[in-house]
Amino acid sequence: MKKEYFTLEKIEGSLIEVTNLHQVSYGEVVKIKSKTTDETQVGEVVKIDDNKALVQVYGTNMGVSGNNTGLEFTGVPFEVPLSKEILGRVFNGIAKPIDRGGDIYSGKFYNVSGRPINPVAREYPRNFIQTGISSIDGLMTLIRGQKLPIFSGSGLDHNQLAAQIVRQAKISGDKNENFAIVFAAIGVKHDEADFFREAFKNAGVNERVVMYINYADDPIMERLITPKCALTAAEYLAYEENTHVLVIMTDITSYAEALREVSSGREEVPSRKGYPGHLYSDLAALYERAGMIKGIDGSVTLIPILTMPSDDITHPIADLTGYITEGQIVLSRDLQGSDIYPPINILPSLSRLMKDGIGEGYTREDHADLSAQLFSSYSRVQDVRALAQIIGQDDLSDGDKKVLEFGTAFEKEFLSQKQDENRSIGETLDLGWKLLRILPREYLDRISPKYVEKYLGDENGN
Q: Which CDD domains match (predicted)?
């Protein structure tokens, strides 16, 4: 039942306090109607205290006063209409079309807060998603149904990396008939949003991409709803249309900053670095919507991107994200300074579900051993480089000089690739074996001898 109130107790920022309410629900949508401008805005009940309610407005409160404004409580949560027609469309942060394609007409409306998945109903993630990027596919493989964040920093190439993943990603062995991308841009500049739109258009993948864009100059409150709208669309495509969906969200830091601002407006007690104490549960409520459900062919795989303030991986946003998700991809400012793209630092990066989605029947029998050896060898490169700075490169042993040669080749050939270069998993693994030929055979201590013999041959390369 809809109720309308015209007595506002207090207006502070984007928050409106209303008193003397009857049967109002938490999360209920509120329409804010101005008598002077005939404009209608949308808000949500974020706190209830006896007969008082706090309404958070998704927009600006300029011109709103207790005398010229009415609040209509709709009795329903924040919902969006969804159908397969959303593919190829662009929406703003609260799911309103901004591509001149018209509204989405559907008899089905979905609560953006999502539908919690019963842990017993979850299916263990299997099968990898090929991104065409060697460092990811070979060393921190993305598994269908996984949550794998990208930890970046201001000015690093995470936008280019995200666009390349969208252009190239596909399910192993799938011809993309049932594969879709949901892309959520949170608090981005207009030129960044234009970059993504043009990149997808030029790559010809628009028809399988749904975009939700919250610009930096949009009301900050919309940033809280943008990722929820995107994940709701992903759940619909996955669980009702049996589509494999990859969700990419950038930048989670903007979402967390919006949470901190709203928390401050509610006068909540701050926690680490001023962020609310419920930051962990808010992030978990987003991340845990990814996964697979038994008996349903579709899946939701999530790649959230966050820029670490001051490149600090112990910052609360990155720290809490690491607790919730199944690994991380860490970008390096040093590698980008060496003109290596994508600048992925593989040593602190990992995919915890990788072991269950690679190998025979998924990628190739040698994948696990090869990955372990490349990690080990590149770690050894860092030790030898540190030693060379102390004693000089000329005084290194012949074996250590080979290690340095491997390190340089590994960064220039394996880690580095063009932004339009799409490598298959076979090409990535073959390139890894090619680089291992640089090292002395006795240094290959993480690979089964049968694979060494099969892919490298004897000592003479035969």
A: ATP-synt_V_A-type_beta_C, V_A-ATPase_B
User: Which amino acid would we find at residue 346?
Assistant: I
Tell whether omega for the bond before 251 is within 30 degrees of 0, i.e. cis.
yes
User: Any bridge partners for residue 90, and if so which?
Assistant: 211
> Can you list the positions of beta strands (E) in 35-178?
40-49, 52-57, 69-77, 79-81, 90-92, 109-111, 129-130, 150-152, 170-171
Kind and range of the H or E run holding 115: none
**pLDDT < 70 stretches in the chain:** 1-3, 6-7, 35-38, 59-68, 172-177, 458-462
Other Cβ atoms within 10 Å of 17 Cβ, number: 15
Q: With CA atoms as reference, report the closest residue to 259 among 297, 226, 301.
A: 226
Interatomic CA distance for residues 444 and 191, integer angstroms: 47
- Reduced to 3 states (helix: H, G, I; strand: E, B; else coil), residue 122 is strand
Phi, then psi, of 246 in degrees rounded to 5: -110, 120
Delimit the domains of the chain by residue range.
3-77, 80-356, 366-456
Whether 80-356 and 3-77 are alike in CATH topology: the answer is no
Judge contact between 336 and 407, C-beta under 8 A: no
Instruction: Say how many Å lie between the first and final Cα of the chain, rounded.
Output: 80
The answer regarding whether domain 3-77 maps to CATH 1.10.10.10 reads no
The model's pTM is 0.90
pLDDT digits (tens, 9 = 90+) for 30-69: 888 876 666 778 888 888 888 888 888 876 655 566 666 7
CA quadruple 96, 146, 326, 374: dihedral sign = negative
Detail the DSSP E strand segments found in 131-228: 150-152, 170-171, 179-188, 209-215
Phi-psi region of 253 (alpha: psi -120 to 50; beta: other; left: phi over 0): alpha
Task: Give the pairing type, strands 179-188 and 344-351.
Answer: unpaired
CATH class for the region spanning 80-356 = alpha beta
371-394 per-position pLDDT tens digit:
999 999 999 999 999 999 988 888
